[in-house]
Structures
1.
Amino acid sequence: MSTPTATSQYQQQYEEARLRGLDLDMTRGKPCADQLDLSAPLLAGVGAEYLARDGTDCRNYGCADGLADVKRLYASYLGVGIDEILMGDNSSLSLMHDVVAQALLRGVPGSDGPWAGTGARFLCPVPGYDRHFSICEHLGIEMITVPLGSEGPDLETVARLAGEDERIKGIFCVPRYSNPTGITYSDATVRGLASMETAAKDFRIIWDNAYAVHHLYPNPAPLTNILDECKRAGNSQRPLLFGSTSKITLAGAGLAMVGASEVNLADLRLFRSKQSIGPDKLSELSHLRFLPDLAAIENHMQNHADILRPKFEAVLMILDERLGPHGVATWTRPRGGYFISLETREGCASAVIDLAAQAGVRLTPAGATFPYGRDPKDTNIRLAPSYPSIEELREATGILALSILIVSEQKGFL
Amino acid sequence: MSTPTATSQYQQQYEEARLRGLDLDMTRGKPCADQLDLSAPLLAGVGAEYLARDGTDCRNYGCADGLADVKRLYASYLGVGIDEILMGDNSSLSLMHDVVAQALLRGVPGSDGPWAGTGARFLCPVPGYDRHFSICEHLGIEMITVPLGSEGPDLETVARLAGEDERIKGIFCVPRYSNPTGITYSDATVRGLASMETAAKDFRIIWDNAYAVHHLYPNPAPLTNILDECKRAGNSQRPLLFGSTSKITLAGAGLAMVGASEVNLADLRLFRSKQSIGPDKLSELSHLRFLPDLAAIENHMQNHADILRPKFEAVLMILDERLGPHGVATWTRPRGGYFISLETREGCASAVIDLAAQAGVRLTPAGATFPYGRDPKDTNIRLAPSYPSIEELREATGILALSILIVSEQKGFL
């Protein structure tokens, strides 16, 4: 469709960009320094006020589940009861990894025994979060992909697979502002996941609500409470809810938490009591003083949104301008979260990522959003606009667009 | 041997003490508030200086192994090379638990496969640390006890068992100021553990050097470097060295670390990269500024010793005075660490602990220093003098002594 002149124009522009020797990183959902600055008060520590309100000396051992006041706040945050939460260390990923590892070694409430040796499998909505997939791969859990649509994972497929194969022990979900497509699960999806029949009586939903309050725009779509729905459906033990302040406060030094039914919690508490003497209560106390309630968290997240929104919009504007007319890619317009997901024409994504890299623009590796790093159609590219400056994003997205145009042309799509 | 008059004297004294309604806790090796005060500067956080010397923004993701400067310092602390260490979160217990869990799920370098399902067993020197035993019990590793003597675990027994049973995959060791007896492994023991033949080719020594610098008195006995010895003996992969600042700085908010050969480290790094995005680098940076080198750590530990030494000596003085003449108990005189280990006459320990509890003195539960909580001779009592005040320790030890006298009398030992 395009003329040779147009071709050389893209390649010429690309060559000019390449020679500028850029080094731009859009690989990961890292907060930028401006976002981290929002939590500057946390850096001052607790000072001489190291006692929690209930008198706990936060410098010493104790409180294996976390401070009572912290549990209360983050129970509301997760949408669970005060007896349905346990605070972790600084990483919800660790909690997820460890919960799966424990299930393999010991089973979960309702299991006949350890999952290890049973050929345990997990459903993985795709495109999805690479670190979820890494946990499964590392621990030897076979992954079965399920398409992720605009309302969540395809419920019919999920219910069919989970209903017929008792080796399928769970599903990984990012229910709000899904990584990377940015969609939020619909009410029907949440209810369906909660109520479907599963062949495995110890099926678990790993509900990684990493972006629970990470809205870019006002009036966010509601997310139905998975624990409530599971209880209503008689499947109280099904969901394990994870949250983290890594992208609320400080990315390496936030709080992580897990919520679940009291039966599951007792099992988690047992495991944690063997693994650790308790989480860092000084970090908990600092967090509590900085963000004492849900209103404070919400207010704080609006400041994040004010930093992130123009970044997302800058990327989208360049994509619209440079690629809009050509029909060689589609992309999401998320209302929150940390990613834009882009779909090239078939067989182009890895070549695009390579080409962009040669011009100094690092993108998430091709295939990363699929189990085992294999994107069967080679179409998905995850864009992470949070870390670079707007200027850098414009430049990087321009190079990405050029790379897409060049590869699409080479493959005959343009 | 004692007269009825003496009997009623002990019981009368005990009754008087009981009526005072005490509540004294000698159960755990918790630092006291004065010790925690020594690390007050840590509570101020890093403030605006959140960049590490190498420019790393400690507020953000990254540095999965820990900050370079922190690794350098704690590599020296553990006695390993800079490429032989990985920083954990706030708990070395977690690292130990997780390393064993990973071995069960995936094996270790040199394994034919996962340890799970192979009937994996561990050697456990006794008396020992209850949380080591809990990890094994929780994860289904059978524990085989080995007597701990004044130079470490009985080497002949260890070598015989490890040499003949390939299901024996490891041993838990607290090589310096062992919990609870306070002994330090001799050079011969360390060399023997490093060089013995093991039936399992993937045998591991869990070297929990929790009290590496926790001396009560000057001129501490040296501890031979286990990694060096293992390398010399051609068993580089054998030891996994654990350390923690929980009892150097803050008990719930210190740094934990693991050291090992580069081959083991690569395996640990792989696991950690799946489990976590990295440790809390702000805590690392605070620690580094507060304790920048080994000399600072050593100096700081002398301040701890100045607080702890009189506490240990107060307990020992009461034990000497009240029990010395009667021959119904023996106890250790540790040169460091957190515990005094007391041996009653056979069959007395649990009754003594119960009796002391009735008078408001809580001691570590009977049997806790043995696998599965079973002290076969019912003789061992672990005393933790760090947390109570000297006044409280005198009172608590007095009641303990009375309880020992009364029970010994009832059992006919007095």
2.
Amino acid sequence: MDVFEAINKRYSHKREFKDEPVPRETLKKIVQAGIQAPSGCNEQTTDFVIVDDPALIREIAAITERPFIKTAGAIIACIVNQRPVYRGLSFEVEDCSAAVENMLLSITALGYAAVWIEGNILVEGKPEKLNSLLKVPAPKYVRVLLPLGIPPEQGTQKEKKPFARRAWFNTYDG
Amino acid sequence: MDVFEAINKRYSHKREFKDEPVPRETLKKIVQAGIQAPSGCNEQTTDFVIVDDPALIREIAAITERPFIKTAGAIIACIVNQRPVYRGLSFEVEDCSAAVENMLLSITALGYAAVWIEGNILVEGKPEKLNSLLKVPAPKYVRVLLPLGIPPEQGTQKEKKPFARRAWFNTYDG
């Protein structure tokens, strides 16, 4: 699928998925796209746990308290590693986000749908629960979950503000 | 260009560009791809200043102390707005990074090259200088610069660690 088509078609799927597994070769292709994302100083701080064990998927759904996640064919958990790489600055959020976006576009291109779950799992002791479940050693932690699967019907991207309200030439005008 | 081809071909161009302007229609298409990136709670916190005034490009190059930036056909400045949108959490870095990745893939697909500049402009009083130059009102600030142009020759993506060292099924094993 063309890059611009994927960018246009990507949307946040927050409903049930069809009851179909995602083949491991497909999951590897999606995560390889995440691996190839840029990272600060090419430090590649993001790791990935690809969850396709149905029991683990159900446990993750319970932690997130979002029942639709139970129906995902797989969940990609993105693990971050906060570590200064340039003048005391750490870019683990940037690294993870770029990897997530590569994966969301790849998921779209391959006919699947997903949703970026982040704030939900950063509160209320959920980081500890997810670290324990997926055996992630602290201080590394699961920053983002991408539940994915085949959507029952194609959703659409939420409306965005028009170009003129978000971009200008040469001088900020917001 | 196919999504996976763009993900494979994207690379960080840290050298001079050909002396060719980037048409405004092309710049708008690239920034529109950034606008359509996902954002926390669809709050769309990232704005964009598209710099194609040669005098401003030279001034930005001087601030970054990276002389090759003088040769860019344009620079896309990504403006962030730190603002809690979910349980006290702010996602302006995620929002900006997803937009940057959409734009880097679009830049690649259109035959241009660019580099993600971030740490360089977050230190040593540079945020204040860039805000002043582009008339960005604080507390908003320029988080990322994307100098872009036609590369004299096609570069290649830096090597990434193999899949087996970054990804595992169902249990973290790093």
